[in-house]
């Protein structure tokens, strides 16, 4: 647990942890707990590990720890993606079982955040959109009582909207096209600003666009 705690701190602060664990190590540790669905303290530990694994496969440096160990230093991106999919495929049914048993959690924000993260990252091909639609009212309620953040709520709304209409409402996602943010992913800049203002979001979308463009340009410059 200490290694996972240090890793979580490193991911939040951008500092390198003294002890690092890989996504698959975290996933294996989560499985090893063998938590009963009614054991909340054990589930809290398990979800912290599953959250770390979820975030780890989305960090190239950590993903490569497992990818290179399994496939060698010359591993292809496609081979590395299989580890990403393995983590998501293991996390999703476990979180579904927890939700089916208890409903959307209240109380600990860390527990809720871990549940939210895995639901938000559930692949569309595995019923992710339907799962997010099912639990969106609870996510909104959690946001309204400060159990989840404004970003948590709006990002889930946007992911559902993009899956259903191809457009996002709040502009929380960053699809790229030709080395820049894909502005066709929103109806209009005015519509996004209006939606964000109605919800009381502090940051105007126009302030995010230069960052979005910069990130897309960096990603487009990476070979392969």
Keywords, separated by commas or semicolons:
224 residues
Average pLDDT value? 89
Proportion of residues in helical segments: 55-70%
Poorly predicted parts: 1-18
The tally of beta strands, per DSSP, is: 2
Strand/helix succession: HHHHHHHHEEHH
Distance between the ends? 36 Å
Shape: globular
**Structural class by sheet pairing and helices:** mainly alpha
Describe the 3D structure:
A two-stranded antiparallel ribbon has the order 1-2. By secondary structure, it is an all-alpha fold. The protein contains ten helices and two strands. The protein has helices at residues 2-13, 23-33, 40-56, 60-71, 77-102, 109-120, 128-144, 150-165, 189-199, 205-221; strands spanning 176-177, 180-181.
Give me the secondary-structure topology.
Layout: H1 2-13, H2 23-33, H3 40-56, H4 60-71, H5 77-102, H6 109-120, H7 128-144, H8 150-165, E1 176-177, E2 180-181, H9 189-199, H10 205-221
Antiparallel strand pairs: 1-2
Summarize the structure.
By secondary structure, the chain is an all-alpha fold.
């Amino acid at each position: 647990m200490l290694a996972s705690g240090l890793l979580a701190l490193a991911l939040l602060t951008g500092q390198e942890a003294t002890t690092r664990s890989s996504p698959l190590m975290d996933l294996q540790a989560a499985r090893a707990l063998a938590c009963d669905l009614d054991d909340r303290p054990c589930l809290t530990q398990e979800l912290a590990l599953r959250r770390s694994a979820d975030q780890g496969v989305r960090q190239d440096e950590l993903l490569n720890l497992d990818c290179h160990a399994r496939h060698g230093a010359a591993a292809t991106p496609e081979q590395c993606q299989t580890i990403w999919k393995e983590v998501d495929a293991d996390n999703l049914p476990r979180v579904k079982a927890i939700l089916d048993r208890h409903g959307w959690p209240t109380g600990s924000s860390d527990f809720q955040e871990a549940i939210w993260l895995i639901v938000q990252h559930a692949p569309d091909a595995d019923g992710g959109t339907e799962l997010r639609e099912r639990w969106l009212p609870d996510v909104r309620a959690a946001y309204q009582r400060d159990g989840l953040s404004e970003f948590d709520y709006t990002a889930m709304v946007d992911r559902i909207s993009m899956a259903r209409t191809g457009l996002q409402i709040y502009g929380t996602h960053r699809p790229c096209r030709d080395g820049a943010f894909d502005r066709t992913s929103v109806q209009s800049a005015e519509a996004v600003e209006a939606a964000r203002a109605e919800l009381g979001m502090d940051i105007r979308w126009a302030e995010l666009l230069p960052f979005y463009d910069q990130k897309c340009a960096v990603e487009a410059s990476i070979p392969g």
